[in-house]
Amino acid sequence: MGQTAYSRSLATSTSRPPLDKKALTLNARLQRTLPNGRLQEIRLPDCQGLKLNLINADFPTGPLPAETMHAVIAQPAYWAFCWGSGLALAQFMLNHPMPNDPLAHQQTSTAWIQGKTILDIGSGSGVAGIAAAKAGAAKVWACDNDADALAATAANAELNQVPLTLFSDLADVPVGADIALLADVLYDKSNLPLLQQAQRLATEVLVADSRINELPDPAYQEVAQIHALTFPNLGEFDEFGTTRLFTLKGSALAQILQQP
Question: What structural domains and CATH numbers belong to the chain?
Fold first, then answer.
């Protein structure tokens, strides 16, 4: 198991591209919760050109008015951020060389994703599923039970010109995915049953989380650690800056991803 550190550089620009129709609709949804927020098209660091519609990086980090706080509790716009675990997983999928690959220092190998059917559970902004598509997945299924998050996933997939099939309920997802991805969804213990559901729906499971040091399910093992903070970072604690990747013990994916 190794520690992978990705740089967090981002080219700055004095102008931002205009939002398309879907993003404008999404922007209106954001402002229902955060009236002073606005979406910007942002290129993520070390993600091979992957872009997302995210909340403006200069959004004030001070206390919110009571009315806005109530709106955040009622309808949190978590999809307007690229959470650290999702960013780490996207970077990992797009940049991770295969262990013992003689070309590891010359090119990136994503053979463990290429041609596969990938299921992104709790897609949020869609970053993990979009990264899988860019890495060569044959099919990507993205599922989120929040209508705004699913709209964000759709808008961001279109922004990156990759096809995703969307689901609002795991009960509607077909069995048979090759790999299920869960990025930053286990912060709430009530979501832990998703681990079992992922095993039912997919042959392999890959979990990325910065808020859990170990999974309560002994069937999983840690295979990597990656440094990445939520983007844009509006004051996230440094203690959440390390994302741990977990997969099923003894699985083919564990053998592929385990650091030599």
Answer: 1-99+108-260 (3.40.50.150)
- Nearest CA-CA partner of 4 in 91, 82, 100, 114: 91
Going 95 to 100 to 106 to 110, the CA torsion angle's sign is: negative
- Residues 149 and 78: beta-carbon distance below 8 Å: yes
pLDDT, tens digit, for every residue of 25-43? 999 999 999 998 999 999 9
Q: Which segments in the chain show pLDDT lower than 70?
A: 1-19, 97-109, 236-237, 259-260
Q: How far apart are CA 223 and CA 26, in angstroms?
A: 36
CA quadruple 224, 126, 148, 235: dihedral sign: positive
Paired strand residues for 204: 179
Distance (Å, whole) CA 19 – CA 17: 6
Q: Which tokens sit at 51?
A: 């872009």
Q: Which amino acid is at 248?
A: L
> What pLDDT score was predicted for residue 255?
87
Both tokens of residue 174?
């077909």
